[in-house]
Design a protein that fits this description.
By secondary structure, the protein is α+β, with helices and mostly antiparallel strands. The protein folds into 3 domains: 105 residues, Uridine Diphospho-n-acetylenolpyruvylglucosamine Reductase, domain 2 (2-Layer Sandwich); 125 residues, Uridine Diphospho-n-acetylenolpyruvylglucosamine Reductase, domain 3 (2-Layer Sandwich), CATH 3.30.465; 225 residues, Vanillyl-alcohol Oxidase, Chain A, domain 3. 31% of the residues lie in helices and 23% in strands. The protein contains 16 helices and 18 strands. The strands form 4 sheets. It has a 7-stranded antiparallel beta sheet. A 5-stranded antiparallel beta sheet has the order 5-6-10-8-9. A 4-stranded mixed beta sheet has the order 1-2-4-3, covered by helices on one side. The longest helix is centred in the C-terminal third of the chain and has 17 residues. Keywords: FAD, Flavoprotein, Oxidoreductase, Signal.
C-alpha cells in the first residue's frame, strides 16, 4: 500500500513533518486499508498527476489529500473513519462535476475511485456492469462488438455512473430514453459505511431516489445497465452544417420546426462559438439520424433552407461519432480548465429568446478577448423517455424537449461577476418562455445557484427529503446540488 512519503513502519514519526495542514491521513486511515490502497497528500509534487484531475477549476473543492481505495471494504472504512473524525469527503469518478456547490467542501479528502474502472459485458443477458469510475469511452468497443447500446451522456471521458445518477441525458435519448431508464441495479456504500444493493426489488425507495438525485445518497461502486440492440447496425447518418452569425434566427427557426414532431431516430445539437481572430461568431449544427442516409434527407431540409455556409454528410459507426463530436468540442475532455456552466430545460423553442441571447453573447465575446464560451442546444426526442411514468424515478425532466447549456470558458475568477450577471439574465429570459411553470435545470448541467426545486422539481422534493433524512441524516453526501433536509 502506497502512503505517499509516509510508511506504516513509522506512521507518526515519518508523517508528522509531512502534514502542513495538521491532518495525518496515514495514521487516521492507513491501518484499515487494503494493501493495494493508496494515500496521497495535496502537498505531494505528483498529486495532480496521480489523482483524478477535475475538468473545471471553477469553485473547486480543496483537499488535504486523496485516498484511492482498491476494494469496496476500503470505501466503507474511509467513510466510517471520516465520520468518526469529522472529515468531509467527495467521491471522484470521471471528474466532470460542474456545480459550484462542490466548492463548499474545503479541507476534506477525495475518495478517488480510479481503481474502480472495470467493464463487464454479459452478452447472453444483455447487461453491462461498470465500476464507479469507468468512463463511457471504456464501454464503447465492448458494446459495439456485441451489437448493443444504451442511453449515454455525450462526452466519452465522462464517468458512466456520475452521469447516470443525474439522469444521463444524451444524443441517444430518442432511441433508449434517458440513461437511468436502463439502470438495473447499483452497489452503494451508504453514510453509515454499509454496502447495499439498490434495485427494483432491493431497497426500492433508494433506487427510486438515486435515479435522478443519486449524488445525495452514497458512493456507487458499480452499476449494471440493460442493453438493447444497436439501431441500423450501429451506423449513423451524421450531417454537420456551418452557419454565419447573420443566419442565427433561421437556425433557431429550423430547431423550432421539430418542436411538435420529431422522429425517435433524430438528434440535433447546435453549438454557437466565437472566433476571436476573425472577430465573428459561427454556429455549427450537427444532425444525427440513426438510420439510413436516404431516410435522413427529409429531416435535413429545415437546416438546408436556413442558409448554411457548408454541409458535410457522413455515415459512420456510433463509436466514431463520439470522436467527431470531440473534434468539434475538444474542451469537453480537457481537464484543468476554468469553466462556469449555466443551463435550463426547455419545453418549447422561442426564437426571439435565442436571438436575444445570441446577440448578448456576441457582444460579450467581442468585449472580452479572454472569454471563450459556447452556447449548446441539445434537442433530443423525448417520446421514449416519457413512456416511463414520471413517478417511476426521481428524474423530473421527461417533458423537456431540449436542454440549453452555456459553457463559459475563461482564464480565472476575474470575469466571474460579469459572466454571472450575463448568464443569470440569459437564463431568466429563457425561463420566461420555457413552457415550464418553474425553473427546470438538469442536475448534471447545473450551475449550483438554482435551488433544489429547479434540480429535482417541487413535486418530487418532499419525497426526496424524506429519503435523505432516512439514508443520510447528517448530510455527508451534500456537496453536489444537495437535497435540503
Amino acid at each position: 500500500m502506497h502512503h505517499s512519503i509516509c510508511s506504516l513502519l513509522g506512521l507518526i514519526v515519518l508523517c508528522a513533518a509531512a502534514q502542513a495542514d495538521g491532518v495525518n491521513l496515514t495514521s487516521l486511515y492507513g491501518l484499515g486499508l487494503s494493501n493495494s490502497a493508496e494515500i496521497l497528500y495535496a502537498s505531494d509534487s505528483d498529486f495532480e498527476e496521480e489523482t483524478t484531475h477535475r475538468w473545471t477549476l471553477y469553485h473547486a473543492p480543496t483537499y488535504y489529500g486523496a485516498i484511492k481505495p482498491a476494494t469496496e471494504a476500503d470505501i466503507q472504512h474511509i467513510v466510517r473513519t471520516s465520520v468518526e473524525h469529522d472529515i468531509p469527503f467527495l467521491a471522484t469518478g470521471g471528474g466532470h462535476g460542474v456545480t459550484r456547490t462542490l466548492g463548499r467542501l474545503q479541507n476534506g479528502i477525495s475518495i478517488d475511485l480510479s481503481n474502480f474502472q472495470t467493464v463487464e459485458l454479459d452478452e447472453e443477458n444483455s447487461f453491462i456492469t461498470v465500476g464507479g469510475a469507468a468512463t463511457y469511452q471504456q464501454t464503447y468497443e465492448p458494446m459495439y462488438r456485441a451489437g448493443m447500446m444504451m442511453a449515454m451522456g455525450n462526452a466519452p471521458c465522462v464517468g458512466v455512473v456520475g452521469a447516470a445518477l443525474g439522469g444521463a441525458v444524451g444524443m441517444w435519448q430518442g432511441l433508449y430514453g434517458v440513461g437511468i431508464d436502463s439502470l438495473v441495479s447499483v452497489r452503494l456504500v451508504t453514510a453509515t459505511g454499509d454496502l447495499v444493493v439498490a434495485s427494483q426489488t432491493e431497497n426500492a425507495e433508494l433506487f427510486w431516489a438515486i435515479r435522478g438525485a443519486g449524488a445525495n445518497f452514497g458512493i456507487v461502486t458499480s452499476a449494471t445497465f440493460q442493453l438493447q440492440d444497436a439501431v441500423n447496425n450501429g451506423n449513423v447518418a451524421s450531417t454537420s452544417f456551418v452557419f454565419p452569425a447573420k443566419h442565427n434566427a433561421s437556425v433557431w427557426e429550423a430547431v423550432r420546426s421539430f418542436d411538435t414532431e420529431i422522429p425517435d431516430e433524430l438528434a440535433v445539437t447546435a453549438i454557437a462559438s466565437f472566433n476571436h481572430t476573425a472577430q465573428e461568431p459561427t454556429i455549427l449544427v450537427n444532425v444525427n439520424y440513426y438510420g439510413p442516409a436516404l431516410d435522413a434527407a427529409q429531416y435535413l431540409r429545415p437546416f438546408e433552407e436556413a442558409g448554411p455556409l457548408a454541409a458535410i454528410p457522413v455515415t459512420l459507426p456510433w463509436t466514431t461519432l463520439q470522436q467527431l463530436s470531440l473534434s468539434v468540442d475538444a474542451a469537453a475532455c480537457t481537464p484543468g480548465q476554468y469553466v462556469a456552466d449555466y443551463s435550463i430545460a426547455l419545453k418549447q423553442t422561442d426564437v426571439d429568446a435565442y436571438v436575444s441571447a445570441f446577440n448578448a453573447l456576441t457582444a460579450f465575446w467581442e468585449e472580452h478577448e479572454a472569454f471563450a464560451g459556447v452556447l449548446v442546444i441539445d434537442r433530443y426526442p423525448n417520446a421514449v423517455a416519457k413512456r416511463v411514468a414520471d413517478g417511476e424515478t426521481a428524474y423530473p425532466h421527461r417533458e423537456a424537449i431540449a436542454h440549453l447549456l452555456i459553457e463559459n470558458h475563461y482564464p480565472d475568477s476575474s470575469l466571474d461577476d460579469s459572466v454571472n450577471a450575463l448568464m443569470r439574465e440569459t437564463r431568466a429570459r429563457f425561463q420566461a418562455t420555457s413552457g415550464f411553470d418553474e425553473l427546470s435545470v438538469y442536475v448534471n448541467f447545473a450551475q449550483g445557484d438554482e435551488g433544489a426545486e429547479a434540480w429535482y422539481s417541487s413535486r418530487k422534493l418532499e419525497r426526496l427529503k424524506e429519503l435523505k433524512r432516512a439514508w443520510d441524516p447528517n448530510e455527508l453526501f451534500s456537496y453536489s446540488n444537495p437535497i435540503p433536509i
